[in-house]
Give the backbone structure.
Amino acid sequence: DKIGSNAFAFSLNGISYFKVVGTLYGPKTFSLFILLILPLPLALLQRTKQSLILYTITLIFLLGLLSIVLTLSRWEIIIAFFEVVLTLFLFKKFMSQSLKKILIKNKVLILTSLLLIVFSILNPFIRERFFIINPDDNSLKTRIELFSQALNMIQLHPFTGVGGDAFRPYFANYDFTENGLSQRFLAPVHSLYFLMATEIGLFGVFIFIISMSGAILFFIKRVKTLPENKRVFAIAFSLSSLIFLLDEIIEPHGLQSRV
């Protein structure tokens, strides 16, 4: 139904461009799951010495990166390139590898990523999608209205929230937006932190942030105490957790996706 109604399409100059969604129910969710998986092949890439395995892992990673670009999810694309840089930095720090060695080992990956950036800047369609902010953009207006709704809900229920996964039913009955957004777009606020603050209260979202951040720091601080073959997985796990926290700043995901 969503494909038939062009719900997964981006329109430019009267032409609809399809967003890749995989087998999931939306391009943003699809790109998030790829983002969470990518740290492992990227980390394994730093430890592999056999040429065949090296090129296979590189191909898998590049296909994942290309899939994220084809979802046209702007925030996830930014996070993906940040993920590459952060992974290389962590390997330089914890795996006793020089910057020169890392750059040589990842030359194919780096060159392909640079080509993707250049292509994005030169392509008029992608430039319109990613580099031009239109104040009349319905998506931007909708996000602002949802943030306004969330702030009102937090003010009314700062400590207990409105209940787990209850943003939509509450929104449908108590719409604080100026234009009655719930009648047109009944969706949660586009930020996990605002969403959790509305559903489980400010104390609950504070505990969530502290717990996740603490787990990431716990793993990162102990990476050097592990054997080298296990450091790869510790770095990948820490990266996946960190990427999830960063991605959820301005992206909405339902209860199932969050679990």
